[in-house]
Protein 1
Amino acid sequence: MRFIKNISILLFVLTTSMVTAQVKFVAKASKQKLGINERLRIDFEMNKDGDNFNPPSFSNFTVVGGPNQSVSNSWINGVRTYKKTYSYFLAPKKRGNFTIKQASITIDGETYKTLPLKIQVTAAVDKPKDPNDANYIASENIHLVAEVSKTNPYLNEAITVVYKLYVSPTIAVDNWNEIDTPRYNDFWSQNINTQGQKVQNGTYNGKDYRFLILRKAVLYPQKTGKLNIEPLSLDIALRVPSNRRDIFGSLLMTRVNKTVSAGNKTINVKPLPEVGKPVDFAGAVGDFKLDVIASKTVLDASESFQIKVGVKGNGNLKLFKLPKISLPSSLEVYEPEHKEQVKTNLSGMRGSISDSYTVVPQYKGKYPIPSISFSYFDLKTETYKRLSSEEIVIDVLSGPTNNANETSNGNIVNNAKQRVVLNNDQFAFIKTKTNFISTKATYFFKTNLFWSLLLLPFLAIPLAIVIRKKKASRDADVYGNRIRKADKLAKKYLSNAKKSLGKKEAFYIALEKALHNYLKARLHIETNDLSKDRINNLLKEKQVDEGTIKDFIAIVENCELARYTPIDIVTMQEDYDKAAKTISLIDKQAR
């Protein structure tokens, strides 16, 4: 009986030792349910040290802290207890039910995995207003604010958005990074440089704060109705005072990660009034002046002069077309050279745009250039205004004389009368006598055709030699082949855009897609990498000229802009020709 008792005790001790030696590797969550504005702590605990710890992918969360590592050893009744923990602090990205997948670690050559954890993220919850809670202190003392200059602008009227970060003097900010950058859909936008901004003192909700301007943007709405300005969101690492003090009596600071957002802003864009809208209105909104200047008004035939049509002032200068000039047909006119000298600041676009036409008269005489009209919507008076230039007379002193009288609108009228010459046989009868010639049977042998076919193979030999030499010469012409290849490549990529000429939306979508596909094939990049700065850098690396790069980026901007502005088929053809020329130039120049 005593032997059996001793055996039982021995078995119990062995079983206890085996249980004690069992490896444990578990995942624990601080809570199973939380609000989207709360934080979650995940601990991965093990009772024996290991190697190759691999955490799961926290795809639906942002890691705002960790991994933090802690180790504890304790001895109780001679038994050693070991615990090692990896801790992560997570912020949810959206609401929903999510799974924290398995983590793994290698202990004594064996791989161990945790069980998945189910987490539910709900709508934002009211946080307890505990004056000693670090997160509450942070939320009360740091604010990100978006200040919009005007919430009910007209279509194409400039508004500004300024993002300011207000921080209480009682807390300290270590660093921050943007986790959500606003995309200004349905706006023409331009960011204003804010580098070198200094911290300023100000008030927010009646309290003293320090603030820093993080971002400025000028927006021109391209649609009417309610438009949304997306928020700017930051993840900020900061230190807040706690209720504990050091040995010298100073308050100890607690580190906190805080996500702040400027919130969505909605503006209501008013359409431009239909009452009094001119027929030739092209979408100009602001305050402008019109200049039409001829470089010379007295010259000889075959000399050239320039006519400059320019608009200057403050408004949406890059978002409308200048009026065209109308010239008599005896004046040969070339495509205009477009120039922009525009600066954008918080008041919007300011500067000038112009089209310069080169004109060459063909004949002696005086040629009036009719007045040019330009209309725009004045924001100060909220009415349409029309500007008109003076008529310009070009006096061509010497040169050939045009016998046809030319009217001011370019139509040619010939007042000289010509005598009608009658033909004596205009009423001649149909001839009844014929000149038929009888034919005799002939044979193909020894005819001219027979001898020609017989000699043709011998004549083809020198012709084949000449063709072969020309082909070899053409194959050796590397530069010429590149030109021909570039032109062929441009036509290939732009074929769909050419089919859509006249259909504004379809044409510019096809044109933009063609440009993207060309760059993907030529530069070996993906479409989502095609930012304007990246295009500029990649083409520079390929040794493409600055002018060609600017033309390509300008075409891409035209594709984005054209969907919101009235465009005629002539402009579409111009953009198509410019795109074909630019693609061809890039292919010739790229190394």
Protein 2
Amino acid sequence: MQVRVQEPQTPGVDIDAVLARAARYLPPERVAPLRDVYEFAARCHDGQVRKTGDAYITHPLEVTNLVANLELDASALAAALLHDVQEDCAVPNEEIRKRFGPDVATLVDGLTKLDKLPISFGSDSQAVRAGQQAQNLRKMFLAMAEDVRVVLIKLCDRLHNMRTLWAFAPEKQRRISLETMEIFAPLANRLGVWQIKWELEDLAFRYLEPAEYKRIAELLAAKRQQRQAYIDEATAAIREHLAAAGIKAEVTGRAKHIYSIHQKMQRYAEQGKAFDQIYDLLAVRVFVDSVGECYHALGIVHALWRPIPGQIDDYIANPKDSRYQSLHTTVVGLNGRPLEIQIRTYEMHRVAEYGVAAHWAYKEGNKSSGRDEERIAWLRQLLDWQRDLSGAEEFVESVKTDIFHDQVFVYTPKGEVLDLPAGATPLDFAYRIHTDLGHQTVGAKVNSRMVSLNATLRNGDIVEIMRSRTSKGPSRDWLNPNLGYIHTAHSRSKIRQWFRKQERDENIERGREMIEKEMRRLGLDLAERQEQILSLFSYSSWEDFLAALGYGGVSTTTIARKLGELLREEEGEADLPPSLPEKMAPAALGSPSLQVTGVGNLLTTMARCCNPVPGDQIVGYVTRTRGITVHRADCVNVLNEEEQERLIGVEWGAASRLYPANIVIEAWDRVGLLRDITTVVTEEKVNMVGVRTVENGDGSVNVLTTLETTGIEQLSRLLSRIEIIRGVRSVERAVERKRTRETSSARRG
């Protein structure tokens, strides 16, 4: 339930305060013209009122004040004051150019175009919404790559809008908060603008989960005095020891933010820990003058308190992509309680707070340096990616996986450092070095030990790629997201491009084999579903669709997911918007939910002969003593039923339980086969019941089992993972093809 938050209005900044803030870092001749810019903006917005009841000009003023906090140049400040006049006041961009110059006009135009991108998280159809969102985000990222000031101003605009979100209706609060949590907060994080990132997260969390936000805030309030006393004692001890060593330092305590505490509480809950056991709600920061003093201070802290093994991070020697630098350590502090300590120079702290804005080349009197360009090299890479990638969805997928995610640092055998998104594999490493190396990869070593190509790389790993110049190219299995061979969209796009260049006929044939295999193992009839499947994708013909499937433009996993979503929507069981994080999705537990046509409150049970799952076409059979038994529509018992009047229409209701599916796994018998199968099933968090093995007499066995899944999408994912287990020849859903009428009648009772 969304709670509408009412807040008192607080006095905002005025133009004098904004100009005073700008005068701290800009020369007087650059600050003075900003008053004329303000007066022009005030005339344009005269008579306009915000939802909060304030005069509209208060919004550009607040945004400009936030931009001044980032210490951007005079053109950025002017653009912040004018960022809404082109769209909301119909002021032509040419007039802005004549009055205030081409640089300001270009920034205002860029901001206006971003404002016209409605990144929708509302109730419109998922396909339309996803496509439009991808196009809009693509434009935003490219605008950022062209001139990062546009997006820095946009982040300030979003922050002030989030601060005044209380004035809007709950539905709009939630939509804007989702957009903020998914796009703008990660963007601020990737740009290194920490002061904006944490506030965006806290404000969005406040509207997305108001009850949890309030609960954490109350827990923090209850322990505030105790934590403050602890941090005062710890900082005093550190100051004393640093001063004794002749190090001039500033030592402060920093409270963690509510959303970060929420994330930590979730991790602790998985370990069975309670809120009272989270001791690092506060961190101590130590500011010194030089890099040498950072390492000296670290040694003193470790002499004072014992460091916890594995909890030391050196971001000075290995900076993050946002150029964040600091030494992080966690020690066993006072009273045996863990304490996080961060040590950095004042300049490093400035970068940590302001990110890319701290180095931006548009500062007054500065020219773009090679070092500055290096700091934003990943922004420039966006332009290269957008030329390589074919569609907006593919481009945005690349940005969100390869730029927004946390990084790991790995080494080549020659000692060169590469940064990759967390979760990257040796194949991602190979494609990062060179496309041809990726195509020719046949094996990998990590720290001199052979590993599988879908192994997850960790910080500090030394990766060596084994290649074969006679290789026929990448495997299509690498594109299967269920198998985990690649993690980055960059690698995925290179593999897709390779297959796209193959013969069309070959791709069509391969695509036909893949879809037939997928539908067969899911127990679905392809002939019945073909038109339905084609309608889910934007291809003009079945052959075009098969070709895309063949070169990897479409995955069987996506087919299973979209098919399941469509069938549920048709039956009144639409999924939550894809923008919702998985943790917000309702758990599929409890009793089966079915709707019987024309009848209510009847006992229903799932037929064990065919075990239908959501997405299957189903029909009910009226028994004499056990209510209605639900069968798949193609169940042999239903097809052979003589008393057709006992069949009744049923349809799926809300997804509210786990559904059993009978599975047949054919494999070569070996020690550990069942262990490997159960490991994969357990990792997917699926219950496995009724396991039985049948020897075939030729060294192979059939493993018969029932998997309790949430539906077709999870079943497809699980079968893909089982299929690559060593020795497995095939895996598919068991579908009974033949049975006598006598047996059929006896089973239905």
Protein 3
Amino acid sequence: MKIISSAEMKELDRMTIAECGMPGEWLMERAGLGVARAVEYLSDLSGYSRLPVCIFAGRGNNGGDAFVVARYMKEWGADVRVWLTCERSAVQGDAKSHLIRLLALGVSVEEFVEVSDFEMLAASGLDCGIVVDGVLGIGIKGPARGVAAAAIRCINSLGTNSPVVAIDIPSGMDADTGEAGGDVVCSDLTVTMAYPKTGLAMPIAYDFVGSVDVVDIGVPASFAEKIDAPLDLVTASDLYDVCPVRSRSAHKGDFGHVLLIGGAPGYAGAIALAAGAALRSGCGLVTVLTSTETAPIVASIVPEAMVHGVAPSDFLKKMEELPEFDAILAGPGMTTSSDTKDLLTALLAMNGAPLVLDADALNIFSANGKALLGAKREVVITPHPGEAARLLDCTAVEIQSDRLKYARELEKVTGAIVVLKGAGSLIAGKGERCSINLTGNPGMATGGSGDVLAGLLVGLLGQHIEPYNAAKLAVYLHGSAGDEAAWSSSQGGMKAGDIIQAIPMAFRRVVTR
């Protein structure tokens, strides 16, 4: 999905209203319903039965969206409170219509017109299940001021102990640059309307954007065809048709057989986590080729996988005895030994199934990313910034200074499909538009998380999903599973295995069954 500017979004809104006969009030209804569904979902994951929802609304369209959220949450049984950053008489247009409907339900809508009002609310110790930010929208330029700024500070204070959901963009953030000239809401989830805004994808904004969901409010896709956007956001709607349909008469052989290679002595966990994720990917069969010493450990952790233990120097010979595979992963817990280098060199020189290179399989090619160019099979690489820097012979600081530039450079140098991991993981492929993923959270910054992504990716490739789409789907599911795990427990207590356990629920975002 294209990432667009605030001006382009306003034009799309205008065209939808003028050319499709859809009134602004109706678009606002769709927007608020989408946010309400996200709030309800978080409520369910958090285990609340009657969730308190505290909603902050400004006088503009974001406030109108917030009124719709409040109305739906009230109708669904939540305990709802709403704070306005102005007098009710200042609310006009479509937002006023929705405010009137909200008041008719008997929802408390308090007018806070002084900075001190929000300061007292912040100090009150109010129990907020979920906080919803509808103070400022994409039309605001420059820092938040006065009562709006006070409302933002209040939201952040209450958000210390409660999840925060921002409507369209976090209030106080520039929708185009991602910059915050003053106070800005620090959200856990931003539910943006129709198309993601450019500021949401800027690294400077990651700390206050959180994960990003997109709500379809009825803007025809054809209206955005002429917009020249350099970057796409990976969204659930982009992935609906990627997963293969599973016939009721299917058997395990219909969904691919993948091989995972790695796990030197002392590193059994890496390859076991990758295998566990591959098993959760939907592929039919998973085989692990690991060291003799490691094999019993891996087999005990992932009993569903077929585990073979041999000396690393005999990996290639053992592969000749095994059946053909639909995708291969090499790297987790592999070490950078001469045996590893010989194996990878041989794999790259062979025609065959797609090959995913991760961890030490990438470090083997330090400062020589061009060595991958001659591969006779499709290659997908999943470097973190440090590994990317070693491939390009630069520094991780340089990579992080312009992640989009270096993701594209890495694709050109290696000829591989690139998944540059980190906050705002990027996917680059030859002839493809570059994509960014904005699911996931800081709880995923834990050992083994990258192994989970690599295993998930090879499992998807094993189902014969086109490699670039498989990379996008893997990154999206990985981040979404991390979000599922965090919302149902916590970020601080998360481990890589929790992400694996949440993968089945993450699939529900892109498939029905």
Protein 4
Amino acid sequence: MNYPEYDVIVVGAGHAGCEAAAAAANMGSKVLLITMNMEVMAKMSCNPAMGGVAKGQILREIDALGGYSGIVTDKTMIQFRMLNKSKGPAMWSPRAQSDRMLFSQEWRKLLEQTPNVDMWQEMVKELIVEDGVCVGVVTNLGIPYRSKSVVLTNGTFLNGLIHIGEKQFGGGRAGEGAARGITEQLVSLGFVSGRMKTGTPPRVDGRSLDYSKMEVQYGDEDVVGFSYKNIDKPLHQRPCHITYTNQEVHDVLKTGFDKSPMFAGRIQGLGPRYCPSIEDKINRFAERDRHQVFVEPEGWDTVEVYVNGFSTSLPEQVQYEALRKIPGFENAKMFRPGYAIEYDYFPPTQLNASLETKLVKNLFFAGQINGTTGYEEAASQGIMAGINAHLTINGKDPLVLSRDEAYIGVLIDDLINKGTDEPYRMFTSRAEYRILLRQDNADIRLTEKSYLLGLADESRYQRVKEKIAKSEEIVDLLKKSSVLPDMVNPYLLSMESAEITQRTKLDKILSRPHITILGLMDAIPSIHILLQEFEKEFLEQAEIHIKYEGYILREKEMANKLHKLEEVKLPTNLDYSSIKSLSMEARIKLNQIKPQTIGQASRISGVSPADISVLMVFMGR
């Protein structure tokens, strides 16, 4: 057979692979998406939820770039909550529970409707590398598929090993086999690999639970969603519940510690620090007599429940007995036990900012192969790898997002410059420009870039231009309009804010804590008349601008100063060991990573401000 040739081959159809395939195809590349099982594309292998702190911001950025994750989440959500509403808008983070099965089905449907995407169900065992360039893959059947570039998004499948108590068996996740051959080939090409570990909790039958013994957790009445497109939201939502472990639960779990693969040393890879197993929590936080457990439904039409906070790899009998000591779980029936999985990854310092590997041209890595954890982190790398694979093979400069442009930029910059020896998870604290990188303005930050790439359509671009223009118009109105004391003081007193004694501009009133633009409109008819023609989204954007104008300007000034360092290019062949004024650690790290600019060098772990000064002098600055 003469098998067709492709522009981009994507290996793996998890969250990273699906976004990579969609992005490259929508930009015009002919794409082949190869997966071991087409029935579970973009499967939610762990919790059935998208978004959360920092992750919600990433999801909105993916949507602004023209990705599908936000659309799929909005179409399949069973509950929506905006987290951290009591804090400033930089901390507001959307989160949604999704219907696990619908999520996978919707992703497949969208990809099937995307022109230029072909699919093939099989395992890839080998890359085709010629003269240092990746030009295709070979499948288990020996089929050679040739392409101009390849994106590897192997998730937890590379030499995956599942652990339950003293039992262990190969697999990429429960019920699916591991992928073998690729790690060994990459190592033979000069890549460095490592091992990481993640885990998942048991799933239980919701019909066997007593929800009256748990706290109920409802979704928000105002379902904002993730996509900037107008996606229909659910008319009703499913509640989640909260319960707690206790000392009796802990005592039962401890009976299995001698058979724990983690404590016995059978697992070599490091697990996610911020999502530890229940046995790890009991061991590390021995002074605590209880831990929170979130009881999350898996979908609209299933009784299966995800026991969030109870990730474990203890023997299945110990898991079962401990579960039944949790309030509300006394008669719990377990569908499947929790397990830990160990897998290969490749330290991401071996990548350029485009996610192309330094050793092999036109080969890109995205997702857990780079040492990250989380659907959102994987999907964001996927869309960037897909975009850059297309740009690279067409002779164009890659798209690289800076740290002040997107959380995606922070994530990739952290990975390629600092690397990671434990599963990397995004937090708002990792971003130094949090006020700029809010969930509400991801479209303003990124849609124009997406439009110029051919991903965002004309209607999305015009919508963003309207949002910018209208919010600026509202800000201008608020700065020009005044209010008298007798008009606004009753509202100010009701909000426990100081009264005014003279006519005051509305922007000054709005800049106070707890005072909102919608509250002013409800309380004062003249303000309602002034602003009633504007959409809620535009009003909230204007309010955030007024309240945080000083902070926004300060962060923009900081970002502009640092951008000047990005203008100082470093030679790619520079031997840093010859610059004796640099610290020994800096010489080693700089030679390893080979930064392209002084700015990138300044963000490498182990490179001090003094080292940067030496480099500036060396470059004649």
